[in-house]
Amino acid sequence: MQQLHSIEECLFWRKLQKGTVGFVPTMGALHKGHLSLVKLSKHFCDNTLVSIFVNPLQFAPTEDFDSYPKTIEQDIKLLQRGGADAVFLPTEDQMYKQFHNASFFESALSFKLEGRSRPHFFKGVTTIVDKFFNIINPTHTVFGQKDAQQLLIIKKMIKIKNYNITLIEGPTVREKSGLALSSRNNCFSKEEKKTASNIYQGLLNVKNSLNCGENQARFLKQIFKNHIKKFPLLKIDYISIACINTLDEILGVVDKEVLVSTAVFFKSVRLIDNFSYSPST
After folding, report:
1. pLDDT tens, residue by residue, 36-54
2. How far apart are CA 57 and CA 54, in angstroms?
3. What is the CATH classification number for the domain harbouring 63?
4. Which of 36, 49, 201, 225 is most exposed, with the fewest beta carbons within 10 Å of its own?
5. DSSP readout, 80-109?
6. 77-111 pLDDT tens trace
7. Catalytic residue set
């Protein structure tokens, strides 16, 4: 696996590649969820490039940029075992001072759900992804369904900006307890992870209620809230049932495909999770 430490090295690597190139963007602190995206890229593409870059634009001044886990040596070993062809490790100076050919993608989707709590976040995401797309020129890119809103925004950005890139969706990977894998899970002990898994259990309660015929969004949200209230250390930021395409909140009957999503604070860590649901399934 080649390690590319500059934009120039990345551009040179890209010129040498024949066939399709899959791109998996990450912020490091890799886990099985990231490796599942690498595996998907390898399945569909001739070559796979993974980036590791902790993007400062995705963090507000009050958020945990400095404490975000950085495990480069371990990440490189995992990517080697996962079969990545190359890893791109640019610096902040390279991406934001030396490379100017990018802009953020503004979408109404960016100001809903996560965008209400973190209004800066998707500007940071789309800015850096646009930069990477321009440098790497991938034929494919892989994003996980765990970050469902991000996935929708990147999908729309690719379409509106006419990128010739196929987006591959990777399913959410979970621990045995159901807790969605996240780099931030490393902050938790085994018992704390067990507590955190109740976020997923709360979503399952909503899903089971939908499958049993409950279709009032207000009642479905209350089912989730009632479950989370049992655990004092869990604090709900939001619970949403929204149209899967527009992310507009469903106020009455769930009669179309929806994204059921939540953000919950556990101690000082903010965890997200979701599932999609269609009344026809």
Report:
1. 999 999 999 999 999 999 9
2. 9
3. 3.40.50.620
4. 225
5. HHHT-SEEE---HHIIIII---------GG
6. 999 999 999 999 999 999 998 887 777 788 899 99
7. 34
